[in-house]
Amino acid sequence: MHATPPHAKPPAQPLGSGHGARARRRVTTVAAATLAVAAVTPATLAAASPSATVSPSTVAPGGRVALNLEGCGTKTGRASSTAFGEVLLTPGNLQATNLFANATISRNASIGTHRVLFECGTPRGEQVSISIQVISGAARGGIGGSFASMSTGQIAAGGALAAGALGTGVWLLRRRSTA
Asked: In CA terms, which of 42, 99, 135, 177 is 20 to 30 Å from 29?
């Protein structure tokens, strides 16, 4: 019987066996599965139909709406409605994953539901339609009514916080430049 000295290395195992080989097989399997998913994903995304949003979905004549169309795969599109006519959509980013535009609701638009038809690319491209609601009343101008639900105390507190932040910024800049 031979005793192995404590500082000796264990005998080498043949290549392709042991824990290292199992780890390589797992990595290979995971890589193959990832590649398969990556190969199928673009085809799945290309088959998805476009989706559209109009914000706000309820608006008064003279008001503005933001139009957004995603999933076209083209760099152009258009949106049309009896509420605002026709507008061209332009890319919102370099990849053209979404197209957008703003539209003003006609002052003569009838009160009620109006269909907005979005088209991808050419006039015979994929289409999706959603509805907007035109309500009676005037469009909010100026600040858009963002202060309507706030009390005077809330407005004063917000102003004080903004002034404090501005003062702190000026103090920090002046302190830094004199040091």
From this structure: 42
